[in-house]
């Protein structure tokens, strides 16, 4: 409205802002309700050992089916959960649910769960939460992997590194997720208490066409091997991408080419056919007994 004076603009602006604010509050209320009424579920995506073809690790991924809004992507609700602090209760539920699911799988298949920076805040004590879950469920700590991102690490490095070391002392493994994005630095790999690096899917999507990505893959895998870290590549979707990635020495490949995230009943039938044999042990990324 060209004729509006400043005051009207302001009125329109605040009305929009408050509508947005209301929408935020409604979304947050919906999330609380969803947690209470069990609308969240976990999907599971198997990670394959590229040599043996067996499944040794499975990533748990949150899914939200809202009764009226329909499917809501983690890319939408995880940031809200983080901002509101709901990620703590949702995150604890996720770890416990994933642990209970893993107990129904063969003993050498582990489960990998994403965790957010806010779950490491000192007044929450993720280490105690995880210890309690392992005690309650009886899951071997070795079968649990927690995935963190580099952005988590720069938030409060000393405190988080201390928590990671305590988790590893318990036997839980730590994976650095989405490696190669954001602030990626090779020095992280040397300094941080991690066991596994998960190379971001953008690498898989460019591996056939980019010499630079090939050079980076060669450097990262070489360094990881020298440091004794396991390497998983994410987001492999096509045969050419798979062929290109197979040239590197990898411990796990995750991507739509093998399997999409699925419900646990379907997963069980897949991994039962693909239980790792003893021969796959040296290259296995799973929870070898
Ligand atoms: P992420 O941890 O990197 O998880 C992998 C994502 O890549 C998943 O998306 C998965 O469905 C997708 N993916 C797997 N294979 C392929 C492929 O071949 N091609 C492509 N294009 N994508 C593939 P999803 O499930 O939508 O999750 C997105 C992100 O949301 C996750 O990325 C993670 O950062 C976050 N997230 C999911 N569940 C949780 C959770 O329980 N806690 C926390 N804190 N974050 C979660
Ligand atoms: Mg992940
Ligand atoms: Mg993640
Ligand atoms: Mg990732």
TrEMBL record:
Protein's organism: Bosea lathyri
Protein name: Diguanylate cyclase (GGDEF) domain-containing protein
Regions annotated as coiled coil: none
Molecular functions per Gene Ontology: catalytic activity
Domain EAL residues, every copy: 24-275
Source organism superkingdom: Bacteria
Keywords from the UniProt entry: Membrane, Transmembrane, Transmembrane helix
């Amino acid at each position: 409205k060209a004729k509006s004076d400043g005051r009207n603009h302001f009125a329109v602006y605040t009305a929009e802002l408050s509508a947005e604010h209301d929408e935020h509050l409604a979304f947050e209320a919906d999330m609380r309700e969803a947690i209470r009424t069990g609308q969240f579920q976990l999907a599971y995506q198997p990670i394959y050992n590229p040599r043996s073809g067996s499944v040794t690790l499975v990533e748990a991924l949150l899914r939200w089916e809202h009764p009226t809004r329909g499917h809501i992507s983690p890319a939408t609700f995880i940031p809200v959960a983080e901002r509101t602090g709901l990620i703590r209760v949702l995150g604890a539920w996720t770890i416990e649910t994933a642990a209970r699911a893993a107990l129904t799988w063969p003993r050498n298949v582990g489960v990998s769960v994403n965790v957010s920076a806010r779950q490491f805040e000192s007044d929450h004590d993720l280490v105690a939460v995880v210890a309690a879950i392992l005690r309650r469920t009886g899951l071997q700590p070795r079968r649990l992997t927690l995935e963190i991102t580099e952005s988590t690490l720069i938030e409060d490095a000393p405190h988080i590194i201390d928590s990671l070391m305590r988790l590893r002392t318990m036997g839980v493994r730590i994976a650095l997720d989405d490696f190669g994005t954001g602030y990626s630095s090779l020095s992280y790999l040397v300094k941080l208490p991690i066991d596994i690096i998960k190379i971001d899917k953008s690498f898989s999507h460019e591996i056939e066409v980019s010499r630079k990505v090939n050079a980076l893959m060669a450097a990262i895998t070489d360094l990881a091997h020298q440091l004794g870290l396991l390497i998983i590549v994410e987001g492999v979707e096509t045969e050419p991408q798979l062929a290109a990635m197979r040239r590197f020495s990898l411990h796990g490949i995750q991507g739509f080419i093998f399997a999409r995230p699925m419900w646990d009943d379907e997963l069980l039938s897949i991994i039962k056919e693909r239980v790792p044999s003893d021969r796959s042990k040296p290259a296995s990324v799973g929870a070898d007994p």
